Amino acid sequence: MVVIVPTNKSVEDFEGLHLYHGAISNCSMRVRMTLIEKGLDWESHHLDLKKKENITDVYFGINPNGLVPTLVDNGVVHIESNDIIDYLDDTYPKPSLRAENNEEMMEWLHLAAAIHVPACKPYVYATKMAAKIKKTPEEQAKYDALQKNQELKDFHGKHAGDKSFSTSDFDKAKAILGACFTKLEVTLEGRDWIMGDRFSLADISWIPLYFVIVGCGFSFENYPNIRRWAAAFEARESYQQGILKWCPDFSLV
């Protein structure tokens, strides 16, 4: 669980659940889905990432990485989406989104988190987002001044100004994604959900990755189990309201 003491003290007065999120953010998608699956009331604080509404002193005072999502639960600030959904299921346990094998389920959450910066972000930015959210010199200077996370500074530095992601960056990201989705394909053989017959946080953690990556042109032609698994989400309210309501088609972003 990642809890932050904010420098923007205004959020410490919040009552109930408040979510700072982005419509097109796969990390935000999994938190919205969890809140809906749990039937929890929450107040939306939407930030338009394409307008760079997250790059402000006010928001960096809430989340020091300037990333979405951020959950504020009765004034306590939580960051990192997979930690947030684990926290929500632990704090608001009914209905439970735990699998019988909680250790294996958590391994899937940790894997999704581990590949975010080295694979998911480079693939998404290289194929779709970098050109759409190009920063002006002033915006880049603002971001560099606010951002203290070196990994994120290094990542965004690769497409700053006239720079673009290298072929090696893209190939590395694609290889990591291919290996992880191959693992998922094998795991789903004979299973309805990642953990078997029970829908869990593991599924919530991974379906936004699929949704965003397929929207960026990643081919799942050779992943029939993943396609079957993804199709099963269409009937779930959490998928309709947590993903499609905010981002009907990532390929059109």
Automatic annotation (TrEMBL):
Database matches in Pfam families: GST_C, GST_N_3
GST N-terminal domain segment(s): 15-96
GST C-terminal domain mapped to chain residues: 138-252
Taxonomy, superkingdom: Bacteria
PROSITE patterns in UniProt: GST_CTER, GST_NTER
InterPro entries in the record: Glutathione-S-Trfase_C-like, Glutathione-S-Trfase_C_sf, Glutathione_S-Trfase, Glutathione_S-Trfase_N, GST_C, Thioredoxin-like_sf
Protein name: GST-like protein
Organism: Shimia abyssi
